[in-house]
Design brief:
The complex is a heterodimer of chains A (265) and B (70).
Chain A (H helix, E strand, L loop, with lengths): L10 E3 L2 E3 L3 E3 L7 H11 L3 E8 L11 H4 L6 E4 L7 H14 L5 E4 L12 H13 L3 E6 L3 H10 L3 E4 L13 H10 L5 E3 L5 H9 L4 E4 L1 H4 L4 H21 L20
Parallel strand pairs in A: 3-4, 3-10, 4-5, 6-7, 7-8, 9-10
Antiparallel strand pairs in A: 1-2
Helix pairs in contact in A: 1-9, 3-4, 4-5, 5-6, 7-9
Chain B lengths: L3 E6 L2 E6 L4 H7 L8 E4 L2 E2 L15 E9 L2
Parallel strand pairs in B: 1-5
Antiparallel strand pairs in B: 1-2, 3-4, 3-5
The chains are: A alpha/beta (265), B mainly beta (70).
């Protein structure tokens, strides 16, 4: 192993360091067995979950997600998916904290409409204010607006997570220029959250200098989710190494790789 | 004779004996020891207070757990 992937290249979020720069969701899998296998293959250490009403009176012995993806092995990142108001998002975060025994790290997302699942930044900023005063460590899903991102950082976010493209769309990173501008001014980790479709999208995000990538559908909706999880792990590592290595400058014309002297006549 | 009361659990009616505690409800629903979080009338009741929290008729109880999500 070369020095670029040494053990000192860690992702730090809310004071905790991680070796993996791939964060994964647990939605849309066929069953819990597939969820577990895909997450193991991804190498992820931070795993998102949703909080929902317990089905009363149905299969009390049904295994719980947290029995498979256990909080002692993974950092559980509860999300506020499905929340369209700051109030609902804050309520969900408080329930998640109780559910996870006082754990303060949450992924805030307040959505604007069901068709785009685009973030509603006005409600996101409102929720952010309450969550910070309530002692949460907040990773925020946001649009790729550098001004909104700066506001979230100033309010005390522990990570900014602009979308690459719409949640579950698999369209990749549609506005890399904005993500670059956000990264230039940020002093906290910037992650691409949403939009990754395949391994090259993840590698591009990392080559740009993103600290990490969060994805769910790209793995869960692949024909072979476990194999795609492995591909994503490699893409994230490759992209990170390429970023650290520093790419060659782009040139307009050819530049021979083999020396010109000593050519046979 | 034991009197009963009606409460709402996750939006559905539930019959409980009067003076039942939140822990009694959790036991009735076979959720004891499960990873859940509970609100009564939109206020979170910490796990440590489930036994000491008595339910009243018409209380709105929400019980949640973690499921797959991104």
């Amino acid at each position: 192993m070369t020095h670029s992937m040494n053990n000192n290249d860690l992702l730090t979020i809310a004071g905790k360091s991680y070796r993996s720069r791939l964060l994964v969701g647990t939605g849309k899998y066929k069953d819990l067995a597939e969820t577990r296998l895909a997450i193991e293959a991804s190498g992820a250490e931070i795993v998102t979950v949703a909080v929902r009403r317990t089905n009363i009176g149905q299969n009390p012995d049904e295994p719980n997600l947290l029995d498979v993806i256990t909080p002692d092995k993974y950092t559980i990142l509860p999300n506020t998916a499905g929340c369209y108001t700051a109030e609902d998002a804050v309520r969900t975060c408080r329930l998640a904290r109780e559910l996870l025994g006082g754990h303060n790290l949450v992924k805030l997302e307040v959505l604007g409409d069901q068709k785009t699942l685009y973030p509603d930044m006005e409600e996101t900023l409102k929720a952010m204010k309450t969550l910070i005063s309530d002692g949460f460590d907040v990773m925020v899903y946001c649009n790729d607006d550098p001004i909104a991102a700066k506001k979230l950082e100033d309010m005390g976010a522990c990570a900014i997570m602009p979308l690459g493209s719409l949640i579950g769309s698999g369209l990749g990173i549609l506005n890399p220029h904005n993500i670059r501008i956000i990264m230039e001014s940020a002093n906290i980790p910037v992650l691409v959250d949403a939009g990754v479709g395949t391994a090259s999208d993840a590698a591009i995000a990392m080559e740009m200098g993103c600290e990490a990538v969060l994805m769910n559908t790209a793995i869960a909706a692949a024909k072979d989710p476990v194999l795609m999880a492995s591909a994503m792990r490699k893409a994230i590592e490759a992209g990170r190494e390429a970023y650290l290595a520093g790419r060659m400058p782009r040139k307009k014309y050819a530049s021979a790789s083999s020396p010109m002297n000593g050519l046979i006549d | 004779m034991q009197k009963n009361m009606q409460i709402q659990v996750n939006g559905a009616s539930q019959t409980l004996p009067e003076n039942a505690s939140l822990a009694d409800l959790v036991a009735l629903l076979e959720l004891t020891g499960k990873r859940i979080a509970i609100e009564v009338n939109a206020e979170i009741v910490p796990r440590s207070q489930h036994s000491s929290t008595l339910l009243q008729a018409d209380d709105q109880v929400e019980i949640v757990h973690a499921i797959g999500g991104g």
